[in-house]
Amino acid sequence: MSQGLPAAGSVLQRSFAAPGNQAQPQSPEDDDRKVRRREKNRVAAQRSRKKQTQKADKLHEEYECLEQENTVLRREIGKLTEELKHLSEVLKEHEKICPLLLCPMNFVPVPRLDPVAGCLPR
């Protein structure tokens, strides 16, 4: 192998042999085609970047909406948790004085179809 020249079959040698890499004078039609192709590519790239930006903006808006919804739901969870605590305390206090729970006769199972009737004294 001689010094300074690429090995036979190497990528470098093939790139030297490629028709686009040879220094040939280009015709005005080739120049026009190249300019049109570059312009078309530039416009396509702008369109792609705009679409990507719009997608990112839409995702950001969706993120903001979800954050707000999450905040509202967390507040609601807090309110419902407090209501549950309060109602549990009320029930606990009621169970201490409820005549239905204190009477041993109320523990005799009697089938009733009406769920409200189950709360009434016998």
UniProtKB/TrEMBL annotation:
Keyword line: Activator, DNA-binding, Nucleus, Repressor, Transcription, Transcription regulation
Protein name: Basic leucine zipper ATF-like transcription factor 3
Biological processes per GO annotation: myeloid dendritic cell differentiation; response to virus
Protein family according to the UniProt entry: Belongs to the bZIP family.
Classification via Pfam families: bZIP_1
GO cellular component, one term: cytosol
Organism phylogeny: Eukaryota, Metazoa, Chordata, Craniata, Vertebrata
Coiled-coil region(s): none
InterPro entries: AP-1, bZIP, bZIP_sf
Tree of life domain: Eukaryota
UniProt KW Repressor keyword: yes
Keyword Transmembrane helix assigned: no
Domain BZIP: residue ranges: 31-94
Region (Disordered): 1-60
Any one Gene Ontology molecular-function term assigned to this protein's record: DNA-binding transcription repressor activity, RNA polymerase II-specific
